[in-house]
Design a protein that fits this description.
This protein is an alpha+beta fold. About 25% of the residues lie in helices and about 30% in strands. The chain has twelve helices and 20 strands. The strands form three sheets. The protein has a seven-stranded mixed beta sheet, with helices on both faces. A six-stranded antiparallel beta barrel has the order 1-2-3-6-5-4. The chain is elongated, with a radius of gyration of 32 Å. The relative contact order is 0.06. The N terminus is likely disordered.
Length: about 475
């Protein structure tokens, strides 16, 4: 029988036909791994070789070492690493019976106590991984836990044994935050439900930030409160928030859920269990807007288009509005809601800019809204004015002020509100007011076309300057 015949014998898999002397020899890190070892007062260069899933052999240079028979701690620094200075990892070792000075190291341990169920990753969260220790390999790993500081993964490739102390660069492809490169160091291995898992720590601040931004888009319980204080004010957060006009049933359910959660934060609607109960008689005439962080609806609002019909205006049904508003035409901004754990200027900014864009698209001269006392100064700084009327809040019965924005005046005038107004609505006017339409818009609003051009120019220049 020829040497090749064994590989085609019936009933045998090709892999099973390999000689036992060959099987498992060429694993991804079969070459010797250069490390620096510190133990029991010694600090020496050494070589690490993998024996199996749980054990490694540390070959030491010739010398005089203590003969402690019990296990002791060995600190290893890998020479092939991603982070400088090298970060040591501690393993348990004992002297082997070889003639050469060698330590047997255990890379297998208990489940880390710091793992938090809130850090459990999505079932579909995967990453590609590379390491300077592994020769020309791109691993596929499945994440089971992930936080900005640490995590757990399992390797989906079969020819590589991960060793504690190895540095890995994980590449995530998040559809919302983009490609994230995360540098981590493997700390150990443990068994969980029959699977061998690796736990790791994140090595540097940029990697921790990349993980935080990715989790902000994906995990329900990871919110602004989970971010470092400096990152909460980062422009990167604003770039992750996107707005959309809501029409589908599923998206509308998310919007109503957000509306209910935001009001419950203020002690309202405690007895309401079904978010759909908040759908009211003005929602069918409204353009609904949601602000989203990845797959999470974190803010909502609406623009009610009355088309001159008084019964389509919620404020008019509670208290009559001035005749000049009806003569000029207006839209009503209402039900602005932000999940309390995402409260901050990023979400409110995104909502106000989109609601302003819709108003410009409809070419409505006025925006009418009601505001609780704490919000009146904020809207005033943006150019809103109070009407001499008030009404009751539909959910709590508290008194709210009725206010309005004069869109035409705000587009054409330069006053002390300009810095705050440009910060909020500058991107909207820069995007939605086109140069060839300025004369038409000025005629409709009966304001100065020159003023609109000047304000649009300032807004565009500010955008260029701020990036």
């Amino acid at each position: 029988m020829s040497a090749n015949a064994v590989s085609v014998l019936p009933g045998n898999e090709l892999g099973a036909a390999l000689s036992p002397l060959i099987r498992g020899v060429a694993q991804g890190q079969c070459h010797r791994i250069p490390v620096h070892a510190r133990f029991e007062g010694h600090s020496v260069p050494a070589t690490l070789a993998v024996q199996d899933e749980a054990h490694c052999l540390l070959e030491l240079p010739a010398g005089v070492y203590s003969s402690n028979p019990g296990p002791f701690t060995v600190a290893l620094c890998f020479q092939q690493c991603l982070h400088r200075p090298q970060v040591p990892v501690n393993l348990q070792g004992r002297w082997s019976g070889n003639e050469r000075p060698c330590l047997e190291l255990v890379s297998y341990g208990d489940r880390p106590t710091y793992l938090n169920e809130r850090d459990r990753a999505e079932a579909s969260l995967r990453a590609a991984a590379r390491s300077p220790v592994l020769f020309n390999r791109r691993l596929n790993v499945q994440l089971h836990y992930l936080s900005p500081l640490n995590g757990v993964f399992t390797v989906l490739d079969r020819d590589v044994v991960i060793v504690p102390g190895m540095d890995l660069e994980l590449q995530f492809n998040c559809p919302w935050s983009g490609v994230a490169m995360v540098r981590v160091q493997v700390l150990g291995r443990f068994e969980d439900q029959g699977r061998l898992l690796c736990h790791f720590r994140v090595l540097d601040k940029p990697s921790s930030t990349a993980v935080a931004l990715m989790l902000l888009c994906q995990r329900r319980h990871f919110s602004f409160d989970s971010l470092p204080a400096a990152l909460r004010k980062s422009p990167a957060i604003g770039r992750l928030i996107h707005v959309a006009i809501v029409e589908g049933t599923g998206a509308m359910d998310d919007l109503l859920t957000c509306r209910l959660a935001a009001n419950r934060h203020y002690g309202r609607l405690e007895d309401v269990q079904d978010p759909r109960a908040l759908w009211d008689e003005w929602d069918p005439y409204a353009i609904q807007v949601s602000a989203r962080l990845g797959n999470k609806c974190v803010g909502a609002g609406r623009v009610v288009v009355n088309s001159g019909h008084r019964e389509r205006c919620e404020i008019e049904m509670a208290t009559p509005l001035p005749r000049w508003l009806w003569t000029a035409g207006f839209v009503e901004m209402s039900r602005v809601a932000i999940l309390p754990e995402y409260a901050g200027h990023h979400v409110m900014l995104a909502l106000l800019r989109e609601l302003g864009r819709i108003t410009l698209h409809l070419q409505s001269r006025y925006i009418v809204l009601d505001a609780i006392d704490i919000l009146v100064p904020i809207y005033t700084r943006l150019g809103a004015q109070c009407l001499p009327i008030s009404k009751k809040h539909p959910y709590s019965g508290e008194t709210v002020r009725v206010m309005y924005f004069d869109v035409g005046r705000l587009l054409s005038s330069l006053d002390w509100h300009l810095p705050q107004w440009l910060y909020v609505f500058g991107p909207t006017i820069g995007h939605s007011v086109h140069r060839q339409h300025i004369a038409q818009l000025a005629a409709r609003f009966r304001v100065s076309a020159t003023g609109i051009r000047v304000k649009r120019g300032i807004a565009r220049a500010l955008k260029t300057f701020m990036g």
